[in-house]
Amino acid sequence: MGRKLLFQHIDKPGIRGLEGYRANGGYRSVEKALKTMSPEAVLEEVKKSGLRGRGGAGFPTGMKWSFLAKPEGVPRYLVVNADESEPGTFKDRYLMERIPHILVEGMITSSFALGAKVSYAYIRGEYFYVARIMEQAIAEARAAGWLGKNILGSGFDHEIHVQVGAGAYICGEETALLESLEGKRGNPRIKPPFPAVKGLYDCPTVVNNVETIAAVVPIVNDGGEEYAKIGIGKSTGTKLISAGGNIKRPGVYEIDLGITCDEFINSDEYCGGVDGRAFKAVVPGGSSVPIVPYEMFLKTPTGENRLMTYESLSEGGFAQGTMMGSGGFYAYNDAQCIVRSTWNHTRFYHHESCGQCSPCREGTGWMEKVLERLEHGEGRTEDIDLLWDIQRKIEGNTICPLGDAAAWPVASAIRHFRDEFEYHVTHREKVKDPKHFAREPFRKSAKFATA
Amino acid sequence: MAKVTIDGISIEVPDGTTILQAARMIGERNTADRHVVPPAMCYYSKLKTSGGYCRTCIVKVTKGSDKDPRPMPKPVASCRTAVMDGMEVANTTDPALIDARNGVVEMLLINHPLDCPICDQAGECHLQDLSYENGKEASRYEFERRTFDPIDIGDTIKLHMTRCILCYRCVKVGEQLTDGRVHGVINRGDVAEISTYISQAIENDFSGNMIDVCPVGALTDKTFRFASRVWFTKPVDAHCNCENPKCSGNAVLWMKGNEVLRVTGRKDMWGEVESFICNTCRFDRKDVNAWTIEGPRKIDHHSVISQGHYQLKREQALLASPAPNVPELAKRKELKDR
Amino acid sequence: MSARTRPITTTEGTKPFSFSEAGLAECKALMARYPEGRSKSALIPILHVAQAENDGWLSVNAMDAVAHVMGLRHIEVYEVASFYSMFNLHPVGTYVLDVCRTTPCMLRGSDDLIHHLEKKLGVHAGETTKDGMFTLKAVECLGSCGSGPMLQCGAGYHEDLTIEKVDSLIEQLRARNSRTNYTDR
Ligand SMILES: Cc1cc2nc3c(=O)[nH]c(=O)nc-3n(C[C@H](O)[C@H](O)[C@H](O)COP(=O)(O)O)c2cc1C
Ligand code: SF4
Ligand code: SF4
Ligand code: FES
Ligand code: FES
């Protein structure tokens, strides 16, 4: 059993309410920070913890906080990114729904460290009911004096507001989120300037994921060093992984960073193995990270066991590795078609492109159309190279990383499953049946044996 | 001051200058060095916060600065990236960058109509120039192109959304030059469009400048009488004492004989207007006697000349294309029948 | 799918709109949450209120009312409303069924679910049944991937769906016959 830092009390009765949360040690970090620590000391603990952003990029949180500009007389903001729209990711929802006060607590403690008098939680519009739960928790916290003026007599004032979105994946990108929070279209900003200098309302702003901010609670309670004892190398602490796809036990798991991938996908404590067929592929960190064959997920290029850490998952680079991403894990069994899934991925990015920059605006739709044609048995051999070329021309040439995120699933699918794409060209009639591989799984070794 | 070197040519520029501006300074210093200037379809030096969208101006920063000489990992938009002292940049000298830029141009063209021969902007279109210089022979895009019906936005401006490349310049004109923007970008992704939403006239003293800043033929002057191929008209520099204090009164009259067919702003060597003019000058002052003629305008005939090449290239490509789409097929038939 | 459905860009044939008293009070409260001069931040929350008070969609009248209440230019409202996928720019049925179609749900059978609903309701995704009861929308990941296939109706998530479950859901909704909104408590 791994340690539980965020989920330690998640099954306790009444944990959703302030009383139940307090009874299980809630708001201790606020007491500790406001009464006994300076903002700098809190920042120092976060730095020591080695905590990395849990929203996808894995940027060290302490470092991000230390970049925050602090000009005199200008307000600073903390904005929590609860847009959670990366396909496969549902950990933040689970956390906010089950134990909302841990986020409120984390926001207060973090804001104290950052010197932010106001913070916002930007929650995707579809999570309206979650926003209500958060609002309720905030109201309880305010009534109990955890929010408002001069909290615990420390002189620190703080207010939290919940903001809802209205359906746009791109608003998870931090500058698009800020635009949306300002009441505009969710168009990512062109950087620089970065939010740490000019963020919300042109003021210095830190944007962090829900889980990142929640992790500040145990870090302040137990000390950054304690937190850093969990994990391996630069992957410290615990991580929430939301697991789905063709596994036996879908759900949200808090893992110690550093367990083996094999343990995660196959042990009964976590995913519990495949749902009755055989595993074929894994997307370990949300749809934007490269898809890898099951075997490659288990072993690194040097034949070692792959671990659930930022470093180990990306070992082998793009050619033979993938990424931790947001922790939106999903696995494919052999009934699934990689071409169909790639088409589905691309349709998502096409639908969600904000349309500001030409390679992403035009390229995502183009890829979708080519993939749709391939999947429906109307493709040509050249289409595979065409796809490769289109994704290559999007990647790295766009304003925000959505362009890269659209390119990588296509690139990795072609890289690892090219023969499946070829099969779609050579077996046009077969693939017209949408369940083509459910009835007759595609076997890599017996290349086209069933022709 | 910062020293920056682009394609091997160096210049000292004030801190905060963008790579694109620095490149233009090199080009202005010596026109023979103009090749260092990246193409810019959305940046407009006279419009704040413009640039960054189209990605045609991407360059490769091969050395970040003297302090931190590491190259930048990805191409950067030169119009939005400030120079650093000691920076080295490749614009035409890096094959990978050229390939990436060609990719961007291809993306801009996949949904762009092939109607250059009948487009009002032909000969003045920056996209046409760009595709001539950076385009592939044939489009690899075989799906139906996005189309919109042209609409009137007021009595003076026509919007052909089909041709729009979403450069946002006209939106910035609305924001920064007029006293209230009534049009903008609606929808998102590749169905985003320039629109007033509910049919509204864009009526404002300075709205006509949208036509001049539009890099393609998406916004055109409805009062351009006998909409004539531009190269059949004779441009002259002229000015008037416009009573509008914000209007420079410096314009170009596009004449046929003694008739003023069209009035536009004066464009500099980078295709940007030097100063903005008001709608009265643009749309209503069509009497040659209302102007003081300064003399013939030197127009960079670059695009007009390349028009011929371009069209030829497009037509040849079309005839050779393995899988043309429906409008292309119709066009191909027309070409074959000719 | 991503076929272009142009928004309704006229007030013709649509009913007038004004906020209810409660709605107006909510708008005012929302606008007061932000720092001085930043009340535009309330635009998206207020559009949700307007949509809920206008039979689940944003007509030009409704958007113009929002612009009026917030002191914004009309285009500022239109450009935002048309950006976000939860805002409907066409009339919708009593119930909007947002069925997730994204990859993790697809792995768990969302294609079949959508297909079934299309057949059962006799509409394509994106359309409304003739009786005005259901609008079927195929949407992108709703953050419930472990319990897919799933759909959202109003504020509620319906998860781990099977054909039987969705059939009985449809019957229940039909029998209840009262509008659901995302903002429902
Ligand atoms: C297209 C796109 C979507 C994103 N979506 C999310 C999201 O839903 N939630 C999130 O926390 N971060 C998301 N991110 C990452 C954020 O931009 C940002 O890096 C993150 O919120 C920073 O928080 P962290 O350092 O705590 O991870 C997204 C990034 C991109 C480019
Ligand atoms: S990469 Fe895509 S989502 Fe990001 S700014 Fe460009 S068009 Fe918008
Ligand atoms: S209409 Fe012209 S100026 Fe406006 S966005 Fe389109 S291309 Fe740019
Ligand atoms: S000119 Fe620089 S991105 Fe368009
Ligand atoms: S993929 Fe359906 S909810 Fe995430």
The whole-angstrom Rg of chain A is 23 Å
Given as residue ranges, the uncertain stretches of chain C (5+ residues, pLDDT < 50) are none
Structural class of chain A: alpha/beta
Named CATH architecture of the largest domain in chain C: 3-Layer(aba) Sandwich
Q: In the CATH hierarchy, what is the architecture of the largest domain in chain A at level 2?
A: 3-Layer(aba) Sandwich
State the CATH superfamily name of the largest domain in chain A. Answer: NADH-ubiquinone oxidoreductase 51kDa subunit
Strand order of the largest sheet of chain A: 8-7-11-9-10
- Average predicted confidence as pLDDT of chain C: 95
Strand order of the largest sheet of chain C: 2-1-3-4
Radius of gyration of chain C: 17 Å
Shape of chain C: globular
Description of the molecule:
The complex is a heterotrimer of chains A (451), B (338) and C (185). Chain A is of the alpha/beta class. Chain A contains 20 helices and eleven strands. Chain A has helices spanning 18-23, 28-36, 39-49, 61-66, 91-98, 100-114, 128-143, 174-181, 210-222, 224-229, 261-266, 294-298, 310-313, 317-320, 338-352, 358-375, 381-394, 402-426, 428-431, 436-439; strands at residues 77-82, 118-123, 159-164, 205-209, 231-232, 235-236, 238-245, 251-256, 279-283, 292-293, 328-333. Chain A has a five-stranded mixed β-sheet with strand order 8-7-11-9-10. In chain A, β5 (231-232) and β6 form a beta hairpin. With 338 residues, chain B is an alpha+beta fold. A five-stranded mixed β-sheet of chain B has the order 2-1-5-3-4, sandwiched between helices. Chain B has eight helices and 14 strands. Chain B folds into three domains: 2-105, Ubiquitin-like (UB roll), CATH 3.10.20; 119-126 and 146-221, Alpha-Beta Plaits, CATH 3.30.70; 227-338, no CATH class. Chain B is 25% helix and 18% strand. Chain C has two domains: 21-81, Arc Repressor Mutant, subunit A; 95-176, Glutaredoxin. Chain C has a four-stranded mixed β-sheet with strand order 2-1-3-4, covered by helices on one side. Chains in contact: A-B, A-C, B-C. The interface between A and C is large, with 61 and 47 residues. The complex binds flavin mononucleotide (FMN), iron/sulfur cluster (2 copies) and FE2/S2 (inorganic) cluster (2 copies). One iron/sulfur cluster binds next to α16 and α18 of chain A.
